[in-house]
């Protein structure tokens, strides 16, 4: 059970967060404690703790969730953690305090969730992980995990590089990692490294986090260009950091996509535009349109139905030619 002190802290956190929620234009009025929101008493109330607004992918993901909630008649309480785990934990505690019907969140980092998830479990509020996983021994702390296979994404990036650098003597790669400790940063690194391991000619000569942001990608790439005399390839864990790297490469008087080849992950519209223009060489897709599947899962878990513990998202890859073909129809 929660202690009186913890409950008081949670109540204070809830009060603070409700203000933050109304300030960021969430999906509806804050629900009254005890469940049920202002309007339809039967509507499912979902508390969603988003990572932040760090990338084009995240913007598309948030829009998908908000639109799907509206279409499904789910009352969405939405919070933006600004890429800070403590903000996400505070948001989840607020949703527990409000007794929402279901909590969903995309964890900023993999570890450190057991305590707050145990609190949700004790309050009998089901939890759905979306997009990113948690690293926990106890998989009863959440109902299901809906999201991509990030290791596979890293492997696809590495396999493309191996295929496209055959016969080259030495290929020096600089890696722009996502947020330190985040599942996609850990897994995309692991998948890429395993795919290039046997190639013999590919070496990661520098690797640093750009925090999944365009400005982070640009700053780290500027430093790499100063410290690394011979860069052949940039492997960026998302499009935004790759786009930042393009700015740094151009500012250094080099031609992105030619002097330095670039591989990214996501396939958002800005990334696909750069790919079709020849500034990026290959993109591994990570699909942000999780909203409809999330609402379906929420309805099932709230109804007490069994759901698959792991729900994978289908994804593709894009070459420059393929990007040019699909760009006009790209939704995000
Ligand atoms: O968790 C998904 C990743 O988070 C996306 O690839 C990246 O753009 C985002 O910030």
TrEMBL record:
GO cellular component: cell envelope
Domain of life: Bacteria
Span of the signal peptide: 1-25
Domain Periplasmic binding protein: 52-306
Keyword terms: Signal, Sugar transport, Transport
GO MF annotation, one: carbohydrate binding
UniProt xrefs under SUPFAM superfamilies: Periplasmic binding protein-like I
Gene3D superfamilies associated with the record: 3.40.50.2300
InterPro entries, alphabetized: Peripla_BP_I (IPR028082), SBP_2_dom (IPR025997)
Subcellular location(s) per record: Cell envelope
Family designation: Belongs to the bacterial solute-binding protein 2 family.
Protein name: Simple sugar transport system substrate-binding protein/ribose transport system substrate-binding protein
Source organism: Pseudokineococcus lusitanus
Lineage: Bacteria, Bacillati, Actinomycetota, Actinomycetes, Kineosporiales
């Amino acid at each position: 059970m929660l202690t009186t002190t913890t409950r008081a802290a949670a109540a204070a956190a809830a009060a603070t967060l409700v203000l933050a929620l109304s300030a960021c234009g969430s999906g509806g009025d804050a629900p009254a404690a005890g469940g049920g929101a202002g309007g339809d008493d039967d509507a499912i109330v979902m508390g969603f703790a988003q990572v932040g607004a760090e990338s084009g992918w995240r913007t598309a993901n948030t829009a998908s969730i908000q639109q799907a909630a509206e279409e499904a008649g789910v009352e969405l309480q939405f919070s933006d953690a600004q890429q800070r785990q403590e903000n996400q934990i505070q948001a989840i505690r607020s949703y527990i305090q409000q007794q929402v019907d279901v909590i969903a969140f995309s964890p900023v980092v993999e570890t450190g969730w057991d305590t707050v998830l145990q609190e949700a479990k004790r309050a009998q509020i089901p939890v759905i992980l979306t997009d990113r996983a948690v690293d926990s021994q106890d998989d009863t702390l959440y109902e299901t995990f809906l999201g991509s296979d990030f290791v596979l994404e890293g492997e696809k990036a590495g396999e493309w590089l191996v295929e496209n650098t055959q016969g080259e003597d030495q290929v020096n790669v600089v890696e722009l990692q996502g947020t330190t400790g985040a599942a996609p940063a850990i897994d995309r690194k692991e998948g890429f490294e395993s795919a290039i391991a046997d190639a013999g000619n590919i070496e990661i000569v520098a690797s640093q986090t750009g925090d999944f942001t365009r400005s982070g990608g640009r700053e780290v790439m500027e430093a790499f260009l100063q410290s690394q005399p011979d860069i052949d390839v940039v492997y960026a864990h998302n499009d935004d950091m790759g786009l930042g790297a393009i700015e740094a490469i151009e500012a250094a008087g080099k031609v992105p996509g030619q002097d330095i080849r670039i591989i990214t992950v996501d396939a958002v519209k800005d990334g696909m535009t750069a790919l079709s223009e020849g500034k990026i060489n290959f993109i591994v897709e990570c699909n942000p349109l999780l909203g409809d599947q999330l609402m379906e899962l929420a309805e099932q878990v709230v109804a007490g139905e069994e759901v698959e513990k792991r729900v994978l998202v289908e994804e593709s890859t894009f070459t420059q030619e393929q990007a040019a073909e699909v760009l006009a129809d790209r939704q995000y």
